[in-house]
């Protein structure tokens, strides 16, 4: 077996989800989850077929993101792997719905970090062995770091609650 490291090629702040499934119908079912998740979501999905013609299947609603998904799926080339790139949404907005798709076996990562995929390759094919998601830890948080983290969470939660209340008052959706 040969080990390879494949870098995910994407813009710095772009979120993506990398997973594995077990059936060609995955692409349609993930498309349905994504399109129904949020009103303004843009996305592209690439899926590595692992039998028959072994093509990269693709779907989405944004050409730029579809091209990104196709390119990265082909670079990964591991059977039944899928990758979803998204804009106007975060993985947390769709992750549980994707995990509930019957064909989905596992999620390797959901991140905007620079990411590398560790691949094992044999004569038969490729497998995702692991994911290097972002940078190595540099230390342990201090009391000051903990205070900052908790204050940031409270500010973000309060901002969201204010938005939700305004949306209720005006009858508009939060996007």
UniProtKB/TrEMBL annotation:
<dbReference type="InterPro" id="IPR007153">
    <property type="entry name" value="Adenosine_kinase"/>
</dbReference>
<protein>
    <recommendedName>
        <fullName>Adenosine monophosphate-protein transferase</fullName>
    </recommendedName>
</protein>
<dbReference type="Pfam" id="PF04008">
    <property type="entry name" value="Adenosine_kin"/>
</dbReference>
<dbReference type="InterPro" id="IPR036902">
    <property type="entry name" value="Ta1353-like_sf"/>
</dbReference>
């Amino acid at each position: 077996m040969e080990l390879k490291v494949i870098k995910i090629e994407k813009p710095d702040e772009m979120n993506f989800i990398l997973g594995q499934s077990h059936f060609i119908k995955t692409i349609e079912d993930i498309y349905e989850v994504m399109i129904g998740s949020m009103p303004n979501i843009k996305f592209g999905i690439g899926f590595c077929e692992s039998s028959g013609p072994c093509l990269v299947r693709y779907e989405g609603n944004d050409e730029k993101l579809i091209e990104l998904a196709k390119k990265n799926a082909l670079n990964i080339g591991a059977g039944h792997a899928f990758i979803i790139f998204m804009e106007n949404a975060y993985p947390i907005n769709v992750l549980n719905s994707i995990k509930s798709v019957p064909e989905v076996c596992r999620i390797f990562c959901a991140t905007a970090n620079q990411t590398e995929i560790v691949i094992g390759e044999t004569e038969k094919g490729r497998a995702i062995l692991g994911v290097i998601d972002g940078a190595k830890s540099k230390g342990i948080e201090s009391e000051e770091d903990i205070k900052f983290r908790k204050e940031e969470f409270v500010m973000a939660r309060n901002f969201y609650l204010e938005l939700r209340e305004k949306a209720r008052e005006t009858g508009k959706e939060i996007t």
